[in-house]
UniProtKB/TrEMBL annotation, chain B:
Pfam families: Fer4_7. GO terms for molecular function: 4 iron, 4 sulfur cluster binding; metal ion binding. The keyword Zinc-finger does not apply. It comes from the Bacteria. The keyword tRNA processing does not apply. The lineage of its organism: Bacteria, Bacillati, Chloroflexota, Anaerolineae, Anaerolineales. Residues 11-41, 66-98 form the 4Fe-4S ferredoxin-type domain. This is 4Fe-4S ferredoxin. SUPFAM superfamilies: 4Fe-4S ferredoxins. Keywords: 4Fe-4S, Iron, Iron-sulfur, Metal-binding.
Length: 672, 239
């Protein structure tokens, strides 16, 4: 520095509180900076979501900020333009027919979604579509609809794992990406340590063993698509034990038949039901992979009914309603957007915080639909697959250079807003998407009055004013600037005490979705399962240390693999490290086989996140993208039923050794 | 300012395998704190990755009653370390001040004897200079040395954080308290499975965990006297 800022002292580190944007959970971060450079990401110990903890994705945020492949300035059709030209173009687009303007936003950040919602309302344009791989894998719309069916309120529920002593999870991979992984991992830790040394138990029901079910005390592997039947069977067994009655649609399920359809021993289900019914604080979790089927809504509802049966609603260790706005769109909304794009009804599409060409099923044809849109504006910070097909690329800052906030979705025991602030000055000629939109809006008389904010910070302060006025926070301030300085210092706003609403069972006996079992597998057919890893929605693939952090279950680094049960592999003549071709009705991919002993023999699994054709040197040309195999079928809530994918697997005759940590030590313990 | 008597602390770590989920956040945290270079797909596939801590995953049982068994493996900071006597240039030494095993990078001549003698395979070698392209090198931690080709390296219990914590306590005129000093892995650990502290203080959390009925040490029978204590997992309580 020629002129040292007052907070800066040579040789000493400065710490800033901000909010992670690697996934929508909204964890609080403290970033160590040293002489203007971001050094290390740490958790914010006061934050109600993560309490000082941080996951691999958050830790590598600095490798995003300092990524050598970032987009360094605004581009039009690949050539550099000035920000003035860029803003003029955006302004032009907003002047044209408002029905032809569309926004496609990711699940983070919330403040941009709020701003765009204001903008589209003022403009008379359709509201923004908000979707991404995280929403897809959690089947969020299905969960909120099931909450509406069961509790009368469309809310993302909060599950109090920490105070529970028996957790029954239906495919909720809460140690990896489900809703709020750090909050729920802490909950698991508390549950395991238990009260008075009474160690809590975790039972996980999912077709393939994940990090979460690997940690479980009991793992049961149902056939994909039968999770709804298993949940209904357990509800019957639990209701019988407690002497309660069930709604007709659930009562009509025969537990023995359900167990047979799922391929689980009936005695195991009885054991689980007994444990669940007799626990002090039992809790059932409806995870995304159980809901991503044609009968997903029925599965979600059966799981919520399980909670209602043991009366844990609003009790410690139970289910709570959150004030988080369940504004996420469903896959059906995205399909609707694509249909409008294909019909030539959209003249300008704005994309922020999501990489649809990579994240969504290839069968959706998003890339082809983009060609029908005259002006595609991408706010991507990195040269991803969608930015490559955009006419205008207006790079946003990365999270460590950004202002904003995130409402914590369902990971905190209280209402919480998490604050984001820049920890370093922007590295490149980037500009906040909110500022670009506000500058463009200012040039239009109709919008200028509706959006009277000078810049992003003024917009944020206007949105924070109701929090200040509510006087519910753990700090108080006479006016917004004092509030703002505390907001930035503490990293957000939340009440002093925990407190969430208790759900009320509104219509437990209302008719619900039919509980149809999946069709049997044809000969040579296998169930296909895909799941998110530490690479998250795939945007983590350009962080070399996320690539070199081994996958916990397989210890594979830097590539994709397909998990095949050793028996199935032997039948198909496949060995470890063989390249195999996986074919579904929608497409095909090639990946390297990993003989995985903890998966159903009738199921194969490929992790999500690799297989990029863009996104820079660390991501490109590595592994395969399972989105190529996914179908377009949706469940009753409009969420993609990716769990119903079926594939065939054939060897290609080629081999490609995977880079795996376990090479050095062998797969099996010497004791075995 | 109050007079602070400087007592040597016996740093130790306890890892509770019952709450360790194997998530690998410690692995990433360690790499980001300690300027550990990434080596790429080929080199890491040859076993040349520079992980100072890794999660060993062993399968137990057969489908469907199968379960992974995770154990985070890092330098065990042996009291009687097999790596030390074999180093011809005294690069692998037991430090007087912190009483831990340290690697003196500018002494190391790369014989790799220490790694060959380490029963925990916790030492890693810089086979090459690994490029960190601009501007990615901006995030390198100024408190930690950047190593070059031909040098052995390993977990230091985040010795830079031990020093920072000691200096902070000294500046405030008080002794170091339990929980003041947290290595990067323990700080990140989402389930608080990793606890760090002073083993000579019987009240510290790490000492309390070390006295647990579930505690054991890796390859104890070799007489290495590890300072990393593991607590059995899988619900196996009472020894």
């Amino acid at each position: 520095y020629t002129d040292m800022p007052e907070y800066q002292q040579t040789g000493l580190s400065t710490y800033f509180a901000t909010t992670c944007r690697e996934c929508p959970a909204g964890c609080g971060l403290i970033v160590r900076t040293h002489e203007g450079r971001a050094i290390k990401v740490e958790g914010n110990p006061a934050h109600p979501v993560n309490r000082g903890k941080v996951c691999s994705r958050g830790l590598t945020a600095v490798q995003g900020l300092y990524n050598p492949d970032r987009i360094t300035g605004p581009l039009q059709n690949g050539s550099e333009i000035s920000w003035d030209q860029a803003v003029a173009q955006v302004s032009e687009a907003l002047k044209a027919d408002p029905q032809g303007v569309a926004f496609f936003l990711g699940l983070a950040p919330d403040h941009l979604f709020d701003l765009v919602s204001e903008l589209t309302a003022a403009l008379g344009a359709p509201p923004p579509v908000r979707y991404g791989a995280y929403g897809m894998f959690d089947a969020r719309r299905t969960l909120t609809e099931a909450a509406k069916l069961t509790f009368g309120v469309p809310s993302m529920p909060f599950f109090d794992l920490g105070e529970s002593d028996f957790i029954l999870s239906f495919g909720a991979n809460f140690l990896e990406t489900w809703v709020s992984p750090l909050a729920y991992a802490r909950g698991l830790s508390q549950m395991r340590r238990g009260k008075n040394n009474a160690r809590g138990r975790l039972v996980v029901i999912e077709p393939r063993q994940s990090v979460t079910s690997g940690t479980a005390d009991l793992w049961l592997a149902p056939a994909p698509g039968t999770e709804a039947l298993v949940a209904a069977a357990l509800a019957n067994l639990v209701a019988a034990r407690l002497g309660l009655s069930l709604p007709d649609d659930l009562a009509s399920v025969d537990p023995k038949e359900a167990a047979a359809a799922a391929g689980i021993a009936f005695e195991k289900l009885q054991e689980v039901a007994a444990g669940f019914a007799s626990a002090r604080a039992p809790l059932a979790l409806p995870g995304g992979s159980a809901l991503a089927h044609a009968n997903g809504l029925a599965a979600a509802r059966a799981v919520l009914v399980l909670n209602a049966l043991v009366k844990n609603l609003g009790r410690p260790g139970g289910v709570f309603l959150t004030p988080a706005d369940p504004a996420a769109s469903s896959f059906a909304d995205v399909q609707d957007l694509v249909a409008r794009m294909n019909a030539g009804k959209i003249h300008t599409l704005f994309i922020h915080g999501v990489n649809p060409v990579f994240e969504l099923p290839a069968a959706l044809g998003f890339a082809a639909a983009l060609k029908k849109v005259p002006q595609v504006v991408s706010f991507a910070s990195f040269p991803d697959e969608t930015a490559a097909l955009s006419t205008l690329v207006l790079p946003d800052h990365t999270l460590l250079e950004s202002w904003g906030y995130q409402r914590t979705l369902a990971g905190a025991d209280r209402e919480a807003y998490s604050a984001a602030q820049p920890v370093v000055v922007p590295l490149h000629n980037t500009r906040a998407a909110a500022d670009v939109l506000l500058s463009a809006a200012r040039q239009l008389p109709t919008l200028a009055a509706a959006l009277p904010y000078a810049d992003e910070v003024e917009f944020l302060q206007a949105r924070l004013l109701p929090l200040l006025e509510s006087r519910k926070g753990f700090y108080d301030a006479p006016e917004i600037l004092t509030f703002w300085s505390q907001w930035l210092q503490y990293g957000g706003w939340w009440p002093q005490r925990a407190g969430l609403e208790a759900p009320i069972v509104a219509e437990l006996y209302a008719a619900a979705a039919p509980l149809t079992p999946p069709a049997p597998l044809a000969s040579g057919e296998l169930h296909f399962y895909t799941y998110p890893t530490q690479l998250g929605d795939g945007s983590g693939a350009n962080r070399p240390w996320l690539q070199e952090t081994p996958d916990p279950m397989t210890t594979v680094m830097w590539n994709s693999w397909v998990e095949i049960h050793p028996e199935t592999a032997a039948k198909l003549g496949i060995h470890d490290d063989d390249v195999v071709k996986i074919v579904s009705a929608s497409g095909e991919i090639e990946a390297v086989a990993y003989l995985y002993p903890a998966i159903r023999p009738d199921t194969v699994a490929v992790p999500f996140g690799q297989g990029h054709s863009a996104l820079g040197r660390y991501a490109e040309g590595r592994g395969a993208n399972p989105a190529a195999l996914l179908p377009l079928s949706v469940n009753e809530s409009g969420d993609l039923s990716f769990g119903d994918t079926r594939v065939s697997v054939q060897p290609t005759g080629q081999r490609r050794p995977l880079s795996r940590m376990e090479n050095r030590h062998g797969v099996y313990d010497h004791a075995e | 300012m109050a007079e602070v008597t400087e007592e040597k602390m016996k740093w130790g770590m306890a890892i509770d395998l019952d709450v360790c989920t194997g998530c690998n956040a410690c692995v990433t945290a360690c790499a980001m704190e300690n300027n550990i270079p990434f080596t790429g797909e080929d080199e890491s596939g040859y076993g040349r990755g520079l992980h100072w801590i890794r999660i060993q995953r062993y399968w137990h049982g057969d489908y469907p009653e199968i379960k992974p068994d995770y154990s985070p493996m890092l330098c065990q900071q042996c009291g009687n370390a097999p790596c030390e006597p074999v180093c011809p240039v005294f690069a692998a030494v037991h430090s007087e001040e912190e009483q831990i095993n340290l690697q003196v990078y500018n002494r190391c001549i790369g014989t790799r004897y220490c790694a060959n003698n380490c029963p925990y395979l916790s030492r890693v070698f810089n086979w090459f200079d690994y490029e960190i392209p601009e501007p990615m090198a901006y995030y390198l931690n100024p408190s930690v040395t950047v190593r070059r080709r031909g040098v052995m390296e390993k977990c230091t219990f985040c010795v830079q954080r031990i020093h920072a914590g000691q200096e902070q306590a000294k500046a405030e005129g008080r002794p170091v308290q339990d929980g003041d000093i947290v290595p990067a892995c323990a700080q990140a650990c989402p389930t608080d499975a990793i606890i760090f502290g002073d083993l000579s203080d019987p009240q510290s959390r790490v000492s309390q965990m070390a006295r647990s009925q579930r505690s054991f040490r890796q390859l104890e029978e070799l007489g290495t006297e590890p300072r990393v204590i593991y607590l059995k997992g899988g619900g196996q309580y009472g020894g």
